[in-house]
Amino acid sequence: MKQKVDDLALFGGPAAFLHPLFVGRPSIGDRARLLERLNWALDNKWLTNGGPLLREFEERVADLAGVRNCVATCNATTALQLMYRAMELSGEVVMPSMTFIATAHAARMAGLEPVFCDIDPVTGCIDPREAEAAVTSRTSAIVGVHLFGRPSPIDELAKVAAEHGLRLAFDAAHALGCGYQGRRIGGFGAAEVFSFHATKVVNTFEGGAVVTDDDALAQHLRSLNAFGAGADGRIERVGTNAKMSEAAAAMGLTSLDAFDQTVRHNRANHALYRSELLGVDGVSVFSFDEDESPNCQYVVVTIDEAVTGIHRDLLMRVLRAENVVPQRYFSPACHQVEPYRSERPVELPHTERLADQVLVLPTGPAVTGEDIRRVCDIVRCAVLRGRRVTERFRRGTDQATASR
Ligand code: T4K
């Protein structure tokens, strides 16, 4: 246990972990089954272009999301681009700034102008009133992000979209298996996008998918995904190559086999973090609604420096010195980075506050209860002595600067 400032590795104490404890360790599942699937693909001599593993993967994802169509792609950023294009959007697209930069960049790459609006400070998701306030005569759509697997306020957004004649779609990169009012994320808006990046709850090494109940949109997406070819193989429009390979699908199927187990593990981890950090003033662990079948892939905490006396960034240093590697998802927020910052400066107070305080802690199948107790022990030690840790760190840096 760390009981005093000197115990922290940042100030010379022994590091709590021998090896780095990461956020986003891949959920691989049964390795033997993965290798079996890869061998099968090699024997089958069909490696990409809509092979049997890919089709099985698409069917299983559609099933899990409760939708009619799944179009798998090489990553979610490309899937977002395809979605924006297939929806034939133009002009401005309103979206939250508190998201991975891919949500915005994909819009930009599709020739659109992302317009950022503020979030609900409690959920971190887009605030429908702020979305409405950002609508102009050039707006064609609203894009919600189910941040960390928490569903966006879908009904309210649908109402705003309908009132202004706008399309609605979702970046569901974090939300595979999560629900909203008894339905699985996937079938809301015109389409939704999942990510199967290595760090996601189900991974295909790299990968993504657009899911939709709209058959015509799905056909359009399939065409854009494969050089603009129609169902009969003839080229009918400009398209790209964003297909998912058989090797990626083999990984995805194996990771999907482990999905229930991964989520059970994640939920137990999340509950343990919550109980270990309960009552630590100035530290809040984002909660999930148990009824919305959260995948709990992200353990998100906020550090309020006004209360703790320690800034999130210094706590991150403290943790790193202990061999714990947290992430600042998503700091800076999209509107705080180029080109958006210079092109369309905007103040989004709730987003800026969250971006300044947010810290994502390690979870996933590789992270044990014992790991979590040790991580929380470090957090408690540093936060309960926040002002002293900050002072000590400042003194150390001042001395280092003076002796240079
Ligand atoms: N929309 C949203 C809301 C998203 O969050 C994302 C991606 C997207 C769209 C776009 O999806 P993709 O096009 O990527 O499919 C990571 C991921 O690369 C990215 O997929 C993810 N969101 C984002 C939140 O996190 P980085 O820059 O943090 O990755 P990196 O390499 O620093 O790794 C993060 C952590 O994962 C580290 O602790 C190390 C660990 N890791 C990483 C990899 C690649 C592993 O343990 N094994 C690995 O193989 O972006």
Automatic annotation (TrEMBL):
Q: A GO molecular function for this record? A: transaminase activity
- Entry superkingdom: Bacteria
Query: Which Gene3D superfamilies does this one have?
Result: Aspartate Aminotransferase, domain 1 (3.90.1150.10), Type I PLP-dependent aspartate aminotransferase-like (Major domain) (3.40.640.10)
Alphabetized SUPFAM superfamilies for the sequence: PLP-dependent transferases
Q: Name one Pfam family in it.
A: DegT_DnrJ_EryC1
List UniProt keywords, sorted A-Z: Aminotransferase, Pyridoxal phosphate, Transferase
Q: InterPro entries from the entry? A: DegT/StrS_aminotransferase, PLP_DesI, PyrdxlP-dep_Trfase, PyrdxlP-dep_Trfase_major, PyrdxlP-dep_Trfase_small
**Similarity comment: family membership:** Belongs to the DegT/DnrJ/EryC1 family.
Name assigned to this protein: Aminotransferase class I/II-fold pyridoxal phosphate-dependent enzyme
